[in-house]
Write a structure and sequence with these properties.
It contains 10 helices and 7 strands. It is mainly alpha-helical and 203 residues long.
């Protein structure tokens, strides 16, 4: 069962306070302020689901690594909760660096904010269901979104049209007609099921 709105609000405020404290600790540790982290209000349920899907058992990766798929390595390194690191291939210090919990949380928040900003360019957050918004944020977090090229989340034109029209059941079906579903079927099906259930909450 979903928490009452008051409890969700208290959880979000507590979460924001924790992130602010962690950011201050990183500033003290690094001696400089990282890129500004602005909490855009993505609900905690979505954040925890993303962390779980972008890690092994909900635990982040503390040392950069390269994913291998069919004997081919990706051209970037990954750390934390799916955060991509480019240009460190010839830098052993960065490849072998051990990230702290605080640094990983800050990277996660930065990536989360980027994903939410991309979603905001495709839908009106104030007019669609909050669960649908969280699903779109996770999709953008996983695959990115480029409106000009029509790639990533921006390429799900039919899905987005249905969501903007409040037809969440149809949107859930369109989500599965994609390469994304072929590549990460379990994750896509879980999010599709969440989308399909929204109509039950709004009727």
């Amino acid at each position: 069962p979903r928490k009452p709105i008051q409890n969700q609000t208290e959880d979000l405020l507590n979460y924001r306070q924790t992130v602010n404290q962690q950011t201050d600790e990183i500033i003290n540790h690094l001696g400089k302020k990282p890129a500004e982290v602005i909490d855009i209000g993505v609900d905690i349920e979505t954040q925890e689901r993303i962390k779980d899907n972008e890690s092994r058992g909900g635990k982040p990766e503390y040392i950069p690594y390269q994913l291998e798929y069919k004997d081919k390595k990706e051209n970037f390194y990954t750390v934390g909760y799916g955060h991509r690191l480019y240009g460190i291939e010839n830098n052993p210090n960065e490849i072998n660096r051990v990230y702290s919990d605080e640094e990983i949380e800050t990277l996660f928040k930065q990536d989360l904010n980027i994903a939410a900003d991309r979603v905001d360019k495709l839908v009106d957050k104030n007019k669609i269901d909050s669960t649908a918004y969280g699903i779109l944020v996770e999709m953008a977090y996983q695959m990115g979104s480029n409106i000009e090229e029509g790639t990533g989340l921006a390429g799900f034109t039919q899905t987005l049209q249905h969501i903007n029209s409040g037809r969440y059941d149809l949107a859930s079906k369109e989500m599965l007609k994609s390469k994304w579903h072929n590549q990460t079927p379990k994750r896509a099906e879980r999010l599709s099921d969440l989308m399909a259930n929204i109509n039950d909450k709004t009727t």
